[in-house]
Amino acid sequence: MVRELQVLEKAQVSPYRVMLFQLSEEVNKSELKSFKFFLNKQIPKCKLHDNSSLLDIFVEMEKRILLAEENLDPLKLICAEVNKSLLEKIEAYEKSSRGRRMSLEGGAESPVSFLDEESCFRMPEVCDSPREQDSGSQMSNKVYQMKNKPRGYCLIFNNNDFSKARKNVPKLHKMKDRKGTNYDEEALTETFKELHFEVIPYRDCTANEIHEVLRSYQSMDHKNKDCFICCILSHGDKGIIYGTDGKEAPIYELTSYFTGLKCPSLAGKPKVFFIQACQGDNYQKAVPVETDADEKDSFLDVDSSPKNYIPDEADFLLGMATVKNCVSYRDPTQGTWYIQSLCQNLRERCPKGDDVLHILTGVNHDVSSKDDRKNMGKQMPQPIFTLRKQLVFPPN
């Protein structure tokens, strides 16, 4: 196999395979041992024995959807720890790969032909993954797979009662309960059930309980699922959401449970988070309603939270109710501006085949057109994403 890969002048190998081969040639025994250490929770020990080469490890990573031509993030994370020169080689490959794609989009034909499986260590054996390696339809390569029913889990953390926070955390002694939040839970439940997700609500969770629940879903097998959704309805501040006990849960930590390395069965599949919480206590300038922060007295309730919200890898989408430093609004008799608009737009536009990013643009328009007349405030939701394809939730 190695001999055949080295004779590149006799058979053109995909640049992706060449890059992996070059990485395998550069690691020493100590670095190879480090690779095995970082992967010992994702790959069985019997596959990481002393005689396993780095090429063997790449094969096992591809089998488990931890590695593919369009998903190099798990490999980059390991290389950053083991040897930064390896990371630089991957980044150089990505840069040249982007240049080749631009050339192809300009009308050029690809000259690359692929060696057979034996001569170019095996491709992933999971043929139904979202990252399809065959020559399927052009459209299927541009849209995340949504074929399984249920599509995946949709968790809803609905925090209403903050009496513990008021009692135990002095700076939060004025934090209000989140009246009207149950309208949001109902709307999310109805919407995502219609979209064929298995909806599981969790009510009045402490920060630690939120972590525990997410860790339990991190360890689950999502092999027969297409997507993962997590909705959090709570109070918040810059970069965090509050548990009902007033303790902080950093948003980055919550989303990072589902990276390719930590949750291999969701690698290459969209991980979607919708967070209804303020990102500060400022009012965007331009009912009785309320805001989801704790200082301001208002008819609108304010909920507050970015630095880094999502992991630096592909296939994440985070829908935030508002931009950094600003409040978001909740009507005690109807629910929040953001979640109610999100659900309405999903129910109306998913049956038409619209992708989620376009739908979120519509949500931005709807929410930004509303006014907090008391404080002359506005609200603008903020989507943050690293999606590689269109995310569409088909109704059937």
From TrEMBL:
Pfam families: DED (PF01335), Peptidase_C14 (PF00656)
Location, primary (coarse class): cytoplasm
Subcellular location: Cytoplasm; Nucleus
Reactions catalysed, as given in the entry: Strict requirement for Asp at position P1 and has a preferred cleavage sequence of (Leu/Asp/Val)-Glu-Thr-Asp-|-(Gly/Ser/Ala)
BP terms from Gene Ontology: animal organ development; cell differentiation; chordate embryonic development; execution phase of apoptosis; extrinsic apoptotic signaling pathway via death domain receptors; negative regulation of necroptotic process; positive regulation of execution phase of apoptosis; positive regulation of signal transduction
Domain Caspase family p20: 150-282
EC number(s) stated in the UniProt entry for this protein: 3.4.22.61
Entry-linked PROSITE patterns: CASPASE_CYS, CASPASE_HIS, CASPASE_P10, CASPASE_P20, DED
Keyword terms: Acetylation, Apoptosis, Cytoplasm, Hydrolase, Nucleus, Phosphoprotein, Protease, Repeat, Thiol protease, Zymogen
GO cellular component, one term: protein-containing complex
One GO MF term: cysteine-type endopeptidase activity
Ranges where the DED domain occurs: 15-92
Keyword set includes Endoplasmic reticulum: no
Enzyme class name: hydrolase
Domain Caspase family p10: residue ranges: 306-395
Family from the record: Belongs to the peptidase C14A family.
Protein name: Caspase-8
